[in-house]
Design a protein that fits this description.
The two termini are 27 Å apart. Helix content is 42%, strand content 17%. The chain is of the alpha+beta class and 308 residues long. It folds into three domains: 6-122, Sufe protein. Chain: A; 135-208, Arc Repressor Mutant, subunit A (Orthogonal Bundle); 235-307, 2-Layer Sandwich (GMP Synthetase, Chain A, domain 3). Strand 4 and strand 5 (142-143) form a beta hairpin. The chain is built from eleven helices and eight strands. The protein is globular, with a radius of gyration of 20 Å. The strands form three sheets. It has a three-stranded antiparallel β-sheet. Helix 4 packs across helix 5 and helix 6 (144-154) packs across helix 8 (176-192). Residues 208-229 have low confidence and may be disordered. Bound molecules: FE2/S2 (inorganic) cluster (FES). FE2/S2 (inorganic) cluster is lined by residues 137-139, 168-175.
């Protein structure tokens, strides 16, 4: 289970600047719902001063994605474009009092969305609009540029870190060789520029040690990321835990005039009914995703929350 700071929880339950912006000056889209995380950042810019006067976001992702997106909007409103572009993903994480290492990709998504929105505002081509084939990790839509930026900005030197910061390699792991290539190349450049000690640079031969090297066709990350086995729960125990988790979330939803009720559990499918302000709300998918994440953390098992 991940430990979230109080500020992450606050920004998850009460996200600021969520929603659609009419007549945005620039829009940045990163990720894809099919990849599990997507973020749209909309900015309003005063052309006379090049200042970001307003920002809104819509995201499909976990609680830390919501919190990171919300934090990003808070950080950039009132800044000039030039000032905003000096922000790093670490600034977003710091603003939130830190993020679990496995969730740092949410802050990177925010950083990338800002760059995309600014490119859109300036009428520039967004370099992430890559052609098919330019991707390193097809599961999560991550290209070389995004990996390189994350490696440089955060001083990454291992495959596992790259997965935490970009999600690349976190699923089928067929992209591991591609990630290794980018990591080797980027670390080498950082060493040459005096930004990284040569002894710390990623070494694929070191990664060939038993913990990281694929066995019988499996990738090191696939092995590493296998879920830890937990005591098996009876159906009754599972349903009780699901009920408890949902009951714990309802007061927060009610604060905003919404509600969520458990309807049924079939295997790994949890059917819920959203009501009140949650019905038709553009944030409904976020609510469902948040409920799902809470349940997965509580049960330690994969499951899907389905609104019915
Ligand atoms: S292609 Fe990267 S995890 Fe599947």
């Amino acid at each position: 289970m991940w430990e979230y700071s109080e500020k992450v929880q606050e920004y998850f339950y009460n996200p600021k600047n969520a929603g659609v912006m009419e007549n945005a000056s620039g829009i940045g889209d990163v990720g894809a719902i099919s990849c599990g995380d997507a973020l749209r950042l909309m900015i309003k810019v005063d052309p006379a001063t090049d200042t970001i006067t307003d920002a809104r976001f819509q995201t499909f992702g976990c609680g830390s994605a919501i919190a990171s997106s919300s934090a990003l909007t808070e950080l950039i409103i009132g800044k000039t474009i030039a000032e905003a572009l000096t922000l790093t993903n670490q600034d977003i994480a710091d603003f939130l009092g830190g993020l679990p290492p496995e969730k740092m990709h949410c802050s990177v998504m925010g950083y990338e969305a800002l760059r995309a929105a600014v490119a859109n505002y300036r009428g520039e081509a967004w370099e992430d609009d890559h052609e098919e084939g330019a991707l390193v990790c097809k599961c999560f839509g991550v290209d070389e540029g995004m990996i390189e930026r994350a490696v440089r900005m955060n001083g990454l030197t291992t495959l596992e870190q790259v997965t935490h910061f970009t999600k690349a390699g976190g699923s089928c792991a067929t992209c591991i060789e591609g990630i290794e290539e980018v990591l080797v190349k980027t670390n080498a450049a950082m060493v040459a520029e005096g930004l990284l000690d040569a002894a710390e640079a990623f070494d694929p031969d070191q990664a060939a040690r038993p913990v990281r090297r694929p066995k019988a066709g499996k990738s090191p990350l696939a092995i590493k990321l296998e879920p830890v086995s937990k005591p098996k729960l009876t159906n009754l125990q599972r349903i009780r835990l699901i009920e408890e988790a949902i009951e714990g979330l309802r007061p927060f939803l009610r604060q905003d005039g919404g509600d969520c009720e458990l309807i049924d559990v079939e295997g790994d499918r949890v059917m819920v009914k959203l009501s009140g302000a949650c019905v038709g709300c553009q944030m409904a998918s976020i609510t469902v995703n948040g409920v799902q994440e809470r349940l997965i953390e509580k049960l330690g098992q994969p499951l899907r929350v389905i609104p019915v």
